[in-house]
Design brief:
It contains 17 helices and 12 strands. With 513 residues, it is of the alpha+beta class. α1 runs antiparallel to α2 and α10 packs across α12.
Length: 513
């Protein structure tokens, strides 16, 4: 007698099998979509290069390149918007304008929220839990809630299911493309950058690590300032798991909506008060990052617009809150000091110092300059590691014809420096979006100087001279020279006295005294 055939699968089993097969095919589908669309963008540029080579008029060439860049930007926007996830992070990393991706940040679909704690449900932990998320990003979404027995609200960050596997697939596709591009078209070590991105994004899936980072940075900023330049949410460590994070709720509006918020407060968006508010916001962020990078070395490495809030209830002050500590960087001391020296060189427009700092940082370059190599190296450093833009320039195209990156091949770039590079470029994008042009190197100069001084890498003599330079422009009557004789008195009397106060011997080697 033949055995009976197995019973047909139940509807639930059929659905389960169908979902398993569909989920296993998603990475392949995303990979195919990425390579198809990337190939189209790349081929479009290669065909265009042939076309534009037949055009002799320089102005017409520039206009054609502008149209081609806009077409490519639209296609990249579409790719990032449609695929979402990791590609939105890439977009934010290299954006030069807040406006380009402002709509993408809020377009990521939310997933049905669920929080599982052994033996507990939502009702056991929360008095209230809003199922509609406040926002949804590439890795997680956040909900407003209230814990049992508390009278203040909290934010609950919940990781999207299955997101880790998809994002790691995406980044490996990007690594392969970056490796190809650096071998064929762009003389920059893109592959090392994508390796650092892979490492940093891998950390983001562990919310216990993020909670520790948030607590550490909050303690540092609050301990080193009478009033912290930015607000950092307080973590509720007792209810943090690898995929769920609970923190205090900060009421505010995204910085992308700053114009609307300014208008709501009865301020003329084009007036002096609005301009001063924007400058204060930028100064607060710059100060916080300067302290984190140079004094601590442990810093928030993801200052894209979605992670910056303008707090409500602070009408006169425009307080800033810095969110999302999934991407942080603990910078080794040698790179921290090396970047501090580079900041001094950039702030002082010192080409020799910039060249030396690049070598000390381990950035390997191959020059294609016919002349003024050190000066071009300074421009390269400022393009990569400073936020300032040349006069009249609103967007920086680092790989455009005639740029410093066309005159140098960056053949080796330390992975550890990528987080600084990314942070600077995001701050530049933020300043462009606010309509401001400023140099973070000049803002960070005093902090970098102090860091090097404390490490014994900057002589008190030079620190004092810089202090005197600052005093010359401030209200201290001793340092306001009305004539050359007053300046001589500063050199002969005041500086030696201040040096004695510091316990420093006169530096006769330089022949000043």
């Amino acid at each position: 007698m033949l055995p009976l055939p197995p019973p047909p699968p139940t509807p639930d089993l059929k659905k389960h099998i169908h979902n398993r097969i569909s989920n296993s095919l998603i990475p392949w589908q995303r990979s195919f979509d990425f390579w198809l669309r990337t190939a189209r963008i790349y081929a479009g540029y290669k065909v265009f290069q042939v076309r534009v080579s037949f055009v002799k008029d320089v102005h017409l060439q520039e206009a054609m390149w502008e149209r081609q860049h806009q077409l490519a930007a639209d296609n990249i926007y579409s790719l990032c918007s449609d695929l979402g996830g990791f590609f939105l992070k890439v977009a934010y990393s290299f954006q030069s304008s807040l406006l380009l991706f402002s709509n993408v940040s809020s377009s990521i679909p939310a997933t049905p929220s669920f929080i599982t704690t052994p033996g507990l449900g939502l009702d056991d932990v929360f008095d209230r839990f809003d199922p509609q998320p406040l926002g949804s990003a590439s890795i997680a979404q956040v909900h407003r809630a209230r814990l049992k027995g508390h009278n203040t609200d909290v934010v609950v960050k919940v990781q999207h299911p299955g997101v880790e596997k998809l994002m790691m697939t995406d980044i490996r596709n990007l690594q392969a493309f970056a490796y190809y591009m650096q071998k064929t078209d762009i003389k920059f070590d893109l592959y090392s950058i994508t390796k650092e991105m892979e490492k940093q994004i891998g950390y983001e899936f562990d919310f216990t690590r993020e909670a520790d980072a948030m607590h550490r940075i909050r303690c540092f900023l609050y301990a080193n300032n009478k009033k912290s330049p930015v607000l950092v949410p307080r973590v509720l460590k007792d209810i943090v798991t690898r995929r769920v994070l609970v923190m205090e709720y900060i009421d505010g509006v995204p910085i992308l909506n700053l114009g609307e918020e300014i208008a709501k407060r009865g301020i003329n968006p084009g007036g002096k008060i609005a301009a001063a508010a924007k400058q204060k916001i930028l100064n607060s962020l710059t100060l916080a990052y300067g302290q984190m990078i140079f004094k601590s070395g442990f810093f928030h490495a993801d200052p894209h617009p979605g992670n910056i809030l303008i707090c409500k209830g602070s009408e006169a002050r425009f307080l800033v809150a810095l969110l999302d500590y999934g991407q942080v960087k603990d910078l080794p001391a040698n790179l921290r000091f090396g970047y501090a020296e580079l900041v001094l060189a950039m702030a002082d427009n010192d080409p020799i110092g910039a060249t030396k700092s690049f070598k000390d940082l381990g950035i390997k370059t191959l020059s294609k300059c016919d002349k003024n190599e050190d000066q071009e190296m300074l421009k390269l450093a400022q393009t990569m590691f400073d936020t300032g833009l040349p006069p009249g320039v609103t967007t920086l195209q680092p790989f455009s014809e005639g740029s410093s990156l066309e005159k140098f091949s960056v053949e080796g770039f330390p992975e550890e420096l990528f987080s600084i590079l990314r942070t600077v470029h995001l701050l530049r994008g933020l300043s462009v979006g606010l309509g401001l042009n400023y140099s973070c190197a000049k803002q960070w100069r005093p902090i970098a100087e102090e860091t090097l001084h404390r490490a014994g890498r900057l002589k008190d003599f030079y620190l004092l001279l810089n202090c005197i330079e600052i005093f010359l422009n401030c209200g201290d009557s001793r340092y306001r020279p009305e004539s050359s004789s007053s300046k001589t008195r500063i050199l002969q009397e005041i500086i030696p006295q201040e040096m004695m106060n510091l316990g420093v011997e006169k530096d006769r080697e330089h022949g000043i005294f």
